[in-house]
Specification:
heterodimer, A: 448 residues, mainly alpha, MetI-like fold, 2 domains, 3 strands, 5% strand, B: 462 residues, two-stranded antiparallel sheet, 16 helices, 77% helix, flat
Amino acid sequence: MSVESSHTAAPAQPSPATAHVKAGLARRYAAEKRFRLYGIIAIGASLAFLAMLLISIVSKGLPAFSQTFIQLDVPLDIDTLDIDAETAEAVQEGSLPASELRRANYNGAIREALRERFPDVSGRSDRRALYKLVSTGAQYDLARIVMDDPSLLGQRQTLWLPTDDEIGALVKRGADLTQADTLSTRLDDKSIAWAADLDANNEFDVRFNTTFFKNGDSREPELAGIRAALVGSAYTLLITFLLSFPVAVASAIYLEEFAPQNRWTDLVEVNINNLAAVPSIVFGLLGLAVFINFFHLPRSAPVVGGIVLSLMTLPTIIISSRAALKSVPPSIREAARGLGASELQVVFHHVLPLAMPGILTGTIIGLAQALGETAPLLMIGMVAFIVDIPQGITDSATVLPVQVYLWADSPERAFTEKTSAAIMVLLAFLIVMNAVAVMLRKRFERRW
Amino acid sequence: MTTTHLLIVATVLAAVSYFAGRARAWSVARENGGIRQLHSLPTHHGALVAIWCFVPALLLVVVWKLAEPVYIGNIVNANVPAELSAGDERQIALYRNDVENLISDGDASQITDDGKRALGERLLAQRSSSSLALTLLALAAALGGAAFAYKRIAAPTRARHSVERVVKFLLVSSASLAILTTLGIVLSVLFESLRFFQQVSFTEFVFGTSWSPQTAIRADQIGSSGSFGAIPLFTGTLLISAIALLVAVPFGLMSAIYLAEYASPRMRNITKPLLEILAGIPTVVYGFFAALTVAPAIREFGSVIGLSVSSESALAAGAVMGIMIIPFVSSLSDDVITAVPQAMRDGSYALGSTKSETVRKVVIPAALPGIVGGVLLAASRAIGETMIVVMAAGLAANITANPLEAVTTVTVQIVTLLTGDQEFDSAKTLAAFALGLMLFVVTLVLNVIALLVVRRYREQYE
């Protein structure tokens, strides 16, 4: 009881200091809550930016993965195709190669088919508008079909051919073609009426866009593809890997295992750290001045791009390789030395294999950076308009991010969706590479 | 044989000599009563023979290829017409180029000009004999080297030491490549910049306020002089970088604080990698997003509230760049915040402060040097960033502090100057290198300061 009484005996009035603290408590708790909220807002906003970026690109890019086809009844007789009868016969018998048919007038056949489908259309400008329903690339598709099977000559064939990008976009969107005035398009009402007629008869079909993955660049959006850029990226990345991986691993081994503590080693380390932060465009200037103007290596070639990118990724790979080597415990080295291994045997037989997963993870992340890099490649002329698939490391080529840059500059609206689609492909590759890196780390990482 | 073929042959020979050397070492071991009698392992002996095969041949090819142009240059100089040899080197180079083009098909007999035909034939003959001689000498060097090392294989030969010395040399030279790269950057950029400053004075470049790099192709063209005052580019770069930092620092820092001090481990594990994705997205994607989504949106918004916004406003490029460097700021700040010793926080709690008070009055001041270092690194990244500004910022060189107007940056101008068709020696092209030099120096200084600050700070608590 005495304890209790001593409590009640305590001054009923709190000390001035406590009162002061109590008075401020509500304000301080509110400040605490606000501060927390700022943090949540910061993270939420950053993630919202990320989501916005991805959603805007995916929503713009998805249509590019499908392509609209039009059904046409194409007359493949030799008069329309403008082939002389002997050649046609010789090709059908196999005495002449099918490539002899390359020069035929496939465009004429497609136009004939369109005229037959819409017999009422007359007048030059109307007909020209009518021809524009079909992509200018349709003739190459038709040529391929005929050259693959010359026996089609002289017959009529019902074929699906790619449409022009404007009308194709409307059909893909599922727009109501009968309501011409509600559509935002640069097509005139007549073309839309024809399209509506075709649509009503189910003569349009939307399919997966294989052209996008099979073709090189083109001025026509519906014919433009990323194949050339993908191959260019593959060559460039191959060179980057072949050059940067061995050199980076060797540097890391030297710095981590052998380097004496002296000025030279310090200089090397400072250099590596600084190179990691040099703006990428400066590496492009180096490539231009040294490899192209001084060593006269070919412009726009993956080999130069690969060299420049490998110089750029070297610091990244070196730094992560050193971390991987450092994480191998000294007892491994001591055990190997105890069994009589030489210094190099210790490293190459024991330390390096144990550090390999970490080194590979760093390499993949470095290569992923290189894959997304654009600026230095602009400097060495890899901004070319590349239609043909590059055949080697010295051919003119472009890479995926540069293709994105080039398409983003094109005025045609259909290129916007191509750009977004190319970005999606690029991001897919980056995601795969990073996923592999994460997997390697998870699967092989050892805690000593 | 071309050099490539020669090197391939040398590689094959080296592979063969590796196996031959290894086999010989085994047989030596058997004669001496087991492998233990050898000083080095058979693989070491094999590797040594391969090295002796490949390296002399390689050195010979390199020396030859360095000396050959000099020798051929002398032939050309001795064979050009008299009126040219007195003239300047460009004339000789042009003449030589002409002849090279004529003999590119390997046949000089069709050339009509007597002097050129003589030189062409001389060059062709020289080339074929040089190629033959090199092939023979290189093969001799490869085989001779291999034979020498092969004969030396014996039980006491210290092959391992030699091989390891070579491997160590390779390791050292790989590590030194970083220095070579820096040197290459400095020299190439500096060299071209010096040529630029011969044409345009340094003070005009650094203090001039008008940038219009249109040089004339002909001397009599109007408005041909071109002006290379880089101040508008510097202010433009600063404006866009400042906007980027205004976005990135608050968002990055607050995310880092929340993740380090408040978030549960689970949330941290999910949120951190998601934020890192922002850093992994290629800059060209941000450029596309800025140019096609953000810039029109800002313009639209501006017109709704009655502001005229340029379609290439600094705000769009800067804001998107800021988003890009959020993870950069946040991961660097996260590192330094978690490095602040727990004892300091505990002391603060014991005095009755709330968590946010601890963060603001204890943790952040303690971590401030590291955070400043991180912000400096982020600034250097923003200044050197290229694709976002190339795609979303303009080309107009305005001096303005208004983020709604179009400005241009150093990197944009480098790209514009170098992607056009221009003679390499023109002031226009060389200006790009002068800008590159500025960029390199500024980012280097920022990085060095940042690294020093971070390092000094780390030492305090470790």
